[in-house]
Design brief:
Number of domains: 1
Largest sheet: 2 strands, parallel
Distance between the termini: 26 Å
Number of helices: 2
Number of strands: 2
Order of helices and strands: HEHE
Helix content: 25-40%
Structural class: alpha+beta
Radius of gyration: 12 Å
Shape: globular
Strand content: 5-15%
């Protein structure tokens, strides 16, 4: 099973560069195996809850909001 570090490395490869200072793993253990990933535009509390309710361990998002998790 891939880890969060594996997913992060895959994303870096696709982006063609390392993450900027405000990007990357924000919470959690980067060595933890990951069975499910949700992708959302905004990291709202509602989207975080939907991610957990779906049984996913990772939420990949684009924008930051005033309600950062």
């Amino acid at each position: 099973m891939p880890t969060l570090n594996d997913i992060h490395a895959w994303l870096e490869d696709k982006a063609g560069h390392a993450p900027h200072d405000d990007q990357g793993v924000m919470f959690g253990d980067p060595d933890r195996p990951v069975a499910g990933v949700a992708v959302r535009s905004m990291p709202s509390p509602r989207n975080a809850r939907a991610t957990v309710d779906a049984g996913h361990e990772v939420l990949i998002h684009h924008e930051m909001t005033d309600t950062d998790i």
